[in-house]
């Protein structure tokens, strides 16, 4: 494969995907609405086409102009998006859809592509815009991929878990990085051993490319860090990368409630473990970045950004009340 068409390509996963493709000598074209700054505007290796992927005619015109070998759909949030994409690019050597670990419909440890059932998706859920139906819509997109493969389209799906790394506009990990940089004591709900599988964004980017090059049509591939860490261990990784020393203070439901908080107020906390098997992807030759390297790059970029994760802040004053309660026990 020599040419790639990235639907999206300027913000987070798409941005890293473009960088990965360039490193592997692809000719890259990005397609988006132009609502965000294009980090590749001055890079003559990247062509840009402005258009709305929900406009079928615009997508068809772009396909005729570019005729890419590989298509990467980074912004397909509805099953209809995937259906249109697999139709427009039916002749591509590869069409890779970014799904989600949230597409799984049953809690298992770990969740496996060919064993764990997917979420159902009603007609109403397929067009719903709320976060509550995100996993349902992604699972239906996966079913569309299977249907497309059955009619001869080289369509595949990659299912990331929680993605982190440089340029993460969701600011989920930025909250915890900011806490480590700003405070000596951190409140952590529970006992700190909860696990919510995360995926370093550069590894997600390489997974997308490798699946396009080596994957099997109609198949799904989980992607996540090969080495999993607990919430406490994640904080330690952040502190080590930042050169900081912090005390982690665990708070149970009673202490949190006394401070006006609950465990649900903390981003990246999940009571039941969420783990994805990555063996299927690794069998294609994919490898993940060592966690220390991934976190160091993430923290370095965070320091240069203006992100602080404040949208996820449960309230430091309330945390101080919790700390005060715990200090008296």
What distance separates the N and C termini? 63 Å
The count of strands amounts to 11
Give helix % range: 25-40%
Radius of gyration: 21 Å
InterPro entries: Epimerase_deHydtase, Lipid_A_modif_metabolic_enz, NAD(P)-bd_dom_sf
Protein name: NAD-dependent epimerase/dehydratase family protein
Biased composition (Basic and acidic residues): 107-117, 295-322
Domain NAD-dependent epimerase/dehydratase: 5-224
Characteristic key phrases:
12 helices, UDP-galactose 4-epimerase, domain 1, alpha/beta, two-stranded parallel ribbon
Describe the 3D structure.
- Residues 107-117, 295-322 have a biased composition (Basic and acidic residues).
- Residues 5-224 form the NAD-dependent epimerase/dehydratase domain.
- It holds the Pfam family Epimerase.
- By secondary structure, this protein is α/β, with parallel strands linked by helices.
- It has 2 domains: 3-164 and 197-223, Rossmann fold, CATH 3.40.50; 172-195 and 227-274 and 291-328, UDP-galactose 4-epimerase, domain 1, CATH 3.90.25.
- 39% of the residues lie in helices and 16% in strands.
- The protein has 12 helices and 11 strands.
- It has a 7-stranded parallel sheet with strand order 3-2-1-4-5-6-10, with helices on both faces.
- Helix 3 (79-88) links the parallel strand 4 and strand 5 (94-98).
- Helix 8 (231-242) crosses helix 11 (291-304).
- The radius of gyration is 21 Å and the shape is globular.
